[in-house]
Design a protein that fits this description.
Order of helices and strands of chain A: HHHEEEEHHEEEHEHEHHHHHHHHHHH
Structural class of chain A: alpha+beta
Radius of gyration of chain A: 32 Å
Helix content of chain B: 25-40%
CATH superfamily of the largest domain in chain B: P-loop containing nucleotide triphosphate hydrolases
Distance between the termini of chain A: 108 Å
Number of strands of chain A: 9
Strand content of chain A: 5-15%
Oligomer: heterodimer
Number of helices of chain A: 18
CATH class of the largest domain in chain B: Alpha Beta
Structural class of chain B: alpha/beta
Radius of gyration of chain B: 28 Å
Number of domains of chain B: 5
Number of domains of chain A: 4
Largest interface: A-B, 33 and 40 residues
Shape of chain B: globular
Chain lengths: 437, 791
Amino acid sequence: MSVIKRLQRLTGESTRQTEKPDRSEEIAALRKRIDAVMARRQEVRASALSQSGRLSPSLTDVIPGEVCANSAGVCFIQESPVDASAWHGHRRIRDFAGVSMEAASFLANNASLAGYRLEEGLFLDTETTGLAGGTGTMAFLIGLGWFDRERFIVRQIFARDFTEERAALIHLAQIAGDRRFLVSFNGKTFDVGLLSTRYIMNRLPCPLTDLPHLDLLYPARRLIAHRLENCRLSTIEAQILGLIRRNDVPGADIPQRYFDWLRGGDARLLQDVFTHNRLDIISLAALMGHLAALTQCRQETAHADAHDLLAVARLYAERQRTGQAQHLLSSLVQSREPALRKASRKMLSLLCKRTGHWHDAVDMWQEMIRDDPDDRFALIELAKWYEHRAQDHATALILVGRVLRQEGGCITAVEREALMHRRQRLQRRQADKNSDK
Amino acid sequence: MAKLTLREWLARMESNGRFMENVRAVKRLPAAQGRFADFPDWVHPRLRQVLDKRGIRKLYSHQVEAIDLVRQGRNVVLVTPTASGKTLCYNLPVLQQILVEPETRALYLFPTKALAQDQMHEIHSLIGELGADIKTYTYDGDTPDDARQAIRKQGHVVVTNPDMLHAGILPHHTKWQKLFTNLKYVVIDELHVYRGVFGSHLTNVMRRLMRVCQFYGAQPVFICCSATVANPQEHAQRLLERPMELIATSGAPAAAKTFMLFNPPIVNRELGIRQSALTPARKLATDLIANAIQTIVFTTSRLNVEVLTKYLKDQFTRGKPLDTKFVTGYRGGYLPHLRRQIEAGLRNRNVMGVVSTNALELGIDIGDLEACIMVGYPGSVASTWQQAGRAGRRMGQSFAILIARSSPMDQFIVEHPDYFFSRSPEHCRVNPDNLLILLHHLKSAAFELPFEKGEHFGRENIEELLDYLAEKGVLHRVADRWHWAAESYPADEISLRSVNPENVVVVDTSETGQHKVIAEVDWDGAFTTVHTDAIYMVESQQYHVDQLDLERKKAYVRKVDVDYYTDAMTYTHVRVIDGFDQKKQRDTIVEHGEVQVVRKVVGYKKIKFYTLENLGFGDVNLPEKDMHTTSYWFTIPKDLLTQLSYSQAEIIDGLAGLGYSLHHLAAMLLMADLHDLDRAIGDKSGEWFVRHGPKARIITASPAGANDPSAGQTLTMVDAFDPTLFIFDAYPGGIGFSELLYQEHARLLSSAQQLIGHCSCTHGCPTCVGPTLEVGLSAKEVALSIIALIL
């Protein structure tokens, strides 16, 4: 008995009938299947012959690209430059072409980037057979992009089936060989990890692992995610870059489209996938341009929210770029929006405190208290200053008392305890001083 | 009162007539002298130094044998008792090689996390003393994400379990490139644990491991350890599919041991009921601990651990603080730090008594205890010896006692000391080519590396299966290679340990809006225990099942207080599809082969507590379950049976009783769980079968007639009935048990003869032919007559 028959019995796929199925029925069914297969063959042949592509168009009918050969075989390449004047959301391509590498290096938190030219960057985004990860997931479409003066070139490497993967990887290695850094969105966790697995599976050295990498997900999370419902690229496109995709194929459908294509499906299934990937790549350039401009507070960041700038300032402060942070904050403290003004003052005052500009810091705390007599942060900071710097325990005590008297229970237990502790210490010191007298 | 030494205590017990009249056997195992050999020259001087400091100046003979073979690149399986220094047999060659060649990697597999942890400590301390930069890590479900990367790159020795290898390591092998490229040793401890379904999975995981190793050009040596079973070498070779060298003679010294088999006294001769095994266990443990003899008690359930621990604590902690660990429990479910604390307490004798499940049976280091009490047969001779080995490791005198419960296995063991004390009769069996198991692993293997035409994976023609998977849309065939072509992660689809990953959740709806899950029942069990209108019990609380929703896999129950429980009535219908082998034993035809099993729950009985009166019947409407599996069976010609002067109904009862005891004995022989096998009586053609009717056992025609449980029809057809008794694998596709049962047919029958013949009950009891309520009053007598006819 054949393995499959046994298996079908185990899985209950075969009919429950205990009698042997009618032989003639079986043969008829087999005939039908053969007919169906033959019909499909003819269809495929017919479509290959027909230029109209009415039945089932071939790949090149649908996607203008070409077969590219290298030492490992062939794969399919589509290259499509984007003109400098072309629009992508709110902006034109040429607007992103001037990204400062200084800013890029800051976004990547990688100093080596500052030494490269923008044209040396490789933008990368892959379409894969799944999100599960592991050795069984393949990148069937590798989308690449780079700047060529003011133009942006998109090149997509497509493995038409599993046998073309090796050639695709070699093609990628050739291109990556001329580049100095990578730009991606979540590529550190996903795309590069997946591709390096594929290189190992094909016994090839991975050209990507050692390249400096600007993964835009991280700065996007830091700088703009605070006003988005999530930090997906599609959300950023819609909310920040002003790009509305029409008839976009949902990312979740992409693996199945490829599997359908593999099993003799229609090349048109792939058209949307190529488009989707191409837009992703261009969005990488747009997002990089947007974030870089944000960090430089350039004039064209009209679409930038002032809160984004506050996030930039915070990042500057964290990376010890105090001057830049202070510069940015000094304009933000002029804001007419109270919440923003308060947050910026808070951050700026702390920077002043950190750098020993006590005078400026005290001024700011006092201003904050003038604006809002219940400003806990300012009251406490000022109390600390009076206690440790001015040695004026009486004033410090008054300030602490003001905070402790606040209603509303918005002070946490820990905060309250710290304040009580501070008050006790101040009272003790004052008593000591009095007794000294 | 002065405390007795173990020797004095034993002498006192052996002169105690009331105790000794229930002791079925006393075996005195003499102390064994150690046989030693010098360290081979090649052992690294630093290793020599470290071992020397630990007082190890010579090795046991089997250790030298093992490390020499491993050095020659041979695969080794060691069968030596607990505490014979087997860990050194793999740690020494592994550390040696890492010292010589620091890139070397080794993979250790243990069946449980606890054991892996323990072995980690062992090798860690060796490395610490070596002062070498050798990194060992455990890698399991508890390993934090941020530690994983370091483990993959730097771990010289990675300690894990087969489940993690299956689902976490192999499908990500590119991340483990360093390990696989340099993998020199694979250590598999407790090899006998991998049998039946688990073992069949393990073989496939090993096939996948070898494919991955081959990809990276590694050819590891396998070092395995097993408890004593009948076929250690055969099992290892079947499991790992490569030649294995067997080392079975231990050179380790052993303490003198007194081993007793104890059968608690009968309290109800009519029903064959004995005193609970817990009672003598409690008395013995109390007495031993009171004499400052450090004691371990093994029970077969977590519940019994708690019950017995409470008894002992009550005894010893009167007037003392309650948190004392003087006597304590130990089981899975205790938090790790508590377990470590107890283990340490045992080593430094702060803990004088511990009650444990088999969690302490395997090699966790708890020092040298003096006495071991086993409450109930642990299920296999191998486990019994492992548990007994917990007492008396190297020196002096030790004591072990097995206290039987009423189950057939327990009774057979204590009443047949020869079976127990002679060479191990237990076989480990696996069937890695079970198509369902194979198919799952083919998917995972294809996910890991594409299959090439002509590649082997077990003994089946996998090309057909690969094409089948391609047709199903999970693989894609191109140019004689099959690639994984689906979004899913196939290793998540199957667990290595459970038969069927689908469980039914029992939801308590007693409080509206506060539904809560109170239990999980496995898929097969759900049909008989939580069918609609069943009474389901958890910790003696009764619940009425309002609805069993198979689609959502939920049983909705609510609390009730009724005076009855329910017992499902099922029919099992077995039809032979293909006989593999046939032989004659006197006039019976014995066969094994492939069968179709159809099972259906047709109704249930309501049975009153205590009086066991039948209060009525109910219908159950659940789908049939259809399974193809392998079976062993024998057919008794009806002419032979008509020679007996019993009625037809009595003969059927006798066969049912025989089936009951054969089922239990077969499970014992196979070290299998009772549920791994099942039984049925029918005839080979599948036209007739016996099922349990509301009043008595009846013979009925095929399933259609079974819808009405009260219809006791077709007794007239019995003329055409050559009864056949089937014992089959309760896993679709079979797990390799049947062939062995076929070969051991005569031994099984004679064991059944002894079990039933020596049973002290009058009409049959759960120890021999099953409860009389189920098999009738004459079953015991008839079963013995039938055996006499056919053996």
